[in-house]
Batch of 3 targets.
Target 1
Amino acid sequence: MKPAGISHKADRLRTFIETEAERAGFDVVAVTRPGAVPESGERLSEFLRKGRHGTMDWMAETAERRAAPENLWPQARSVIMLGMNYGPAGNPLDILKKKDRAAISVYARNRDYHDVIKGRLKELAGRFAARSGAEVKVFVDTAPVMEKPLAAAAGLGWQGKHTNLVSRRLGSWLFLGSIFTTAELTPDEAETDHCGSCRACLDICPTDAFPAPYQLDARRCISYLTIEHKGPIPAEFRSEMGNRIYGCDDCLAVCPWNKFAEEASEAKLKAREDLKEPRIGDLLLLDDAAFRSLFSGSPVKRIGRDRFIRNVLIAASNSGDRDLAPACRRLAEDASPLVRGAAAWALSRLLPAAELRKFAERARLLERDADVLEEWDAVLAPDAMIEA
């Protein structure tokens, strides 16, 4: 039984954290316990056993801490979960019809949200620690914390069939962060699932990345392929990528609950104009220095120029625009094997048969990388040629 006065103190701290969270720019805040989601460990184990994490080895390496938040910091007694709305202006899927433009995921069209959220969390946690006298630790999704199950347990929303958090007030557009604390706070009730019979997020996925509702195979997810995957994009997914060069918003954007979400305020992550609908042709020209300059402060910068150009070349191949072929030719001689291989694929979709064969045969003679040679072999196969 708690000593007298504890509940009143908890109530005062709760009011304080709600007021300060709103002041810091967060839209929702709720509280849960570190051990509120004991089943998340088994779900993670099954995900890893099936290899659905792909090459994200860090998920397996941190599985023990990730599976049980209490293992991350045993002294923690409460978890304050916070959400920030990043709802876009307009429909982010409209750009998919513009084949000459590149689609960058809504969350990545401005500053890296990890930096934005973490800075505000630290400021908020500092105020809370000063008021409560409790210890605090701040986490965003770069730490081994399963934030979505904790957010659901706290009542911020529920994990939808696309595995992302859905809020009745903010839809699927939520950045999450957490403050672990030794303070004893009254936990909120978990939210219930309101997906019902809706399958919109599952049916729109271009690569069938959902084996079943509430399950994701990251190896088939365009967000994983364009951001986390370091090697060549598997051929079976290249056409389905369309013009998506960094992430994929399809399953988020079609969620019916988004109709209740307002556009994010100016104080938050508004899209940069130059990242809303950049031209594929312009992006193909980026060298490392230009890439770093364009994406300074953006999460896109973290994947590096070579992986980024790989993605842009796939978009070029899907554009059908033969005017992009000269830039793809130059990239077929790039210093990066990853870029050269993607350029081979792009040229196989943009050049007429005779011109492609001539270029491919010469390029193959000069190539030494096994993966790139494999790409050129595929290009030279008879069914890879297009008519002039």
Target 2
Amino acid sequence: MATTLHEEFIRAVHKGDTESVSGFLTLGADVDPRDPASGLTALMIAAGRGNAAMVRLLLDAGADVYTADSRGGGTALHKAVQGGDGETVRILLDAGAFVDAVTPTTGHTPLMDALWYKWPEVVAVLLDHGAGLNLSTHYGFSMREHFAYELNVNTRGKDRLLDAERLLTSRTETDNAAAEAHKLMGAVVAGDLGAVRQQLAEGAEVDERFPLLNGFNDGHTPLLVACRDGHEEIARELIAAGADVNAVEPVFGAVPLHKAVYNGHTGITALLAITPGIDLDFQGITNGYTPLHDALWHGYEECARILIDAGARLDLAGHDGKRAADIAREDLGADHPLARALAGATPGTAVRSN
């Protein structure tokens, strides 16, 4: 039986035949076929075998760095970590692979796998790219408990595990020092306006991001936290100091305005809505909701009215296809005045919010 282009392509990837793979791509081969035997994509196969040149070729041809295998749910990054080639891991991370991607079956992150397979060199690459230290598996082990278990059950290769442990210890110390050094964020979290003013006067970076510690403030700017926690005067002070009113946090992909309306902080919502340069309609990466969606979703009618009066768009849909009018009807009721106004509005025209 004659083989198909798909089969020849996968066979060439398995062989590490970069020249043939390039030729098949030129002929129109799909860059993301799955091996029927393993459920792995071509990129996963090349990554697992540490074939950095092949991985580069496939990525340049548009291979999907985010997709998961159809059995265990691992990504190409998980496979590269298993293979132990640091350069391949680095290429995938530079291409946008999620450093803390979690497999749906085990809950393993790439860092957990790097420890499991005893690759301290790969651990170093992942840590340099911000891998989280405080995540847990689906079977109840924290990363550190997972590592302690590995130390206990392995009779060979402990020297490599101990090398990795030193890297983890160093990164933990660095993270703790970075958190302690972020005095401005500490003042914001405490709601201490005087301390915020003092830190700004002493030259604190107004948009400095909090380190990624797998906590509630990960990657947040002080303004994002002030808007989330309802510290209106602090938010005002930060904005006056030049804080980025459209800063995006990396967890939910939200901006300060999302934080304010999600928690019903009307004063901060009003403050942000009139700030020059504000993006009233930013859509979060998690669900595609705008601040107006969030205000209506949580039933904060006054926040929604502020946004509508400021000119928020009504035609944008979330990932679920819902527009502001749909959320208002579901959460406020079809007979609510605001829901009726939104239902009858023509996108791009003004809406009377009261």
Target 3
Amino acid sequence: MLDDFVVRGVLAALGTVVATGVLGCFVVWRRMAYFGDAMAHAAVLGVALSLAFSMSIYVGVIITAICIALIFLQLTGAGQTADAALGVLAHSALALGLVIVSLLSGAKLSLSAYLFGNVLSVGTTDLAIIWGGAFVVVGVLWWQWSHLLTATLSPDLAYAAGIDPRRQELLLTILLALVVAVAIKVVGALLITALLIIPASASRQLARTPEGMAVASIIVGTLAAFAGTQASLMFDTPTGPSIVVAAACVFAATTILGRLRA
């Protein structure tokens, strides 16, 4: 019989990979990996501000990540290159977050848990927030699927179809902020981007349609969640990094399989 904290940890990991699996496909298709890193760095600032003002970590991370995303869109709209804007915002947010934590007594240990994740410490309230966030992300993506796909394939085609690509980009950035907040307790700020990119990249070898890739990405993430949690319990390793390592192993296997099929 599994302990309650293990069951909650597995359920939290599953809720996270459901959200990151589908959204990660758009991150891969749009080559937004660096943007995901920027959101993860913004999460560190969000955690620091949450600790400073004694508010919910989830609220602080979501608000901070959305603010960073909006500033990024303003900078790129004003002519700044995307990579330069992301570099400035990501590292500035990370540095400011670390400075704030250094000024707070007793906050360093709390920040460490959010940097590397601690899925086995997830409570029932955390579980409700994680699965609630996952349902919101998947629901919005399902609702806007065709518009998001069109804007991803060709902004010009999107304009011709009456779709505003900038609006779709803003929607994706907001969903990314939500996913970062949901995933921070599971894999930590340093590994959130990995959970977005690795399952989606692995699923490319397993599917021929965008919808199939999204489903395959969730399946890969689910396998990684189970395998990583089991390995963590067996070898007494950090659960979040163990899940990412398991996902990387699946990626390696699908890549080898794709080479053999070619």
